[in-house]
Amino acid sequence: MSTTPPGAPDGTPSKKPSKRDIRPKASHLRDSVVPLPHIPDPDPLGPLGAHVSAQGGVACAPPRATDIGGTGLQLFTKVPNQWKEKELSVKEISAYRTALAASGQRWVTSHDSYLINLASPDPTLRARSIESFTMELRRCNALGLNALVSHPGNFIDERTSGIARNADAITAALESAPGPTRLCLELTAGQGTVIGATFEEMADLLSRIPPPLQHRLGVCLDTCHVFAAGYDLAGDYDGVWANFADVLGYARLGVLHLNDSVGALGSRKDRHALLGEGSMGDGPFRRIMQDPHLRLVPKMLETPKGDDMVSNDRLMLTKLRLFAAR
Prior knowledge:
- By secondary structure, the protein is of the alpha/beta class.
- Helix content is 35%, strand content 13%.
């Protein structure tokens, strides 16, 4: 497979902002965390769920995950397509944790804003991205979320410089927002000038983060993304995972996004389909649910919701559990 996405337009990298430019001020959330209830983990499959709506507040998300039959969930802690940042109050945090305990959900991740580009050569956009990303980390830590899924940025001008900018921005944000949430960088489909479409490039990006922060880093593997990037989970399942184990290692795998692909193998199109109804078919998802290396890895759907927002997720989660049982 090709390891280099299509070329980017020429440009001159802008000077990297100083740490004083890109580090937002500390948030009160760091000191306002209330105890997180213990939730037992009896399911031998590990957490299984979907991205659910947090409309009405983050406390509304856990019962919605229960409603679709999930044991884990992904949510947005803010509106993902707006720059406006949200400071969570102690009341909101406590309400979320009460709802989480009542729901029985065992594992929760956020997905950060679609606007963030930590690799941007534009100093204004990059500074704004780092501020938003740092605020997202603070919200996740305050809520006690297990993980934060984040896409690597778009380098725009030159790949190596973009990877370096991305790593520097992640470092600044992690240092500004200490806490329990694990950052899981998501492998991408390789569209445009996006970073992270190959296992090797993701390993390169991770390796640039200082050693004291390495324990806070993981990887999110989206089945649609890697298939669209050229990793043939349908035709060479064992080979793809052997490659992943060699380059990144299973210990780095913090979460799986289970999505079929509208696009063909190597299409570099990030378009999700219902499981078994895209170019991948049922095979890879059956293998994933029966794979002992992946049994306990949290697995989240990001497949189309349909008209009522619940039926498709219920159907897909039932399908995955049947795969695991056969």
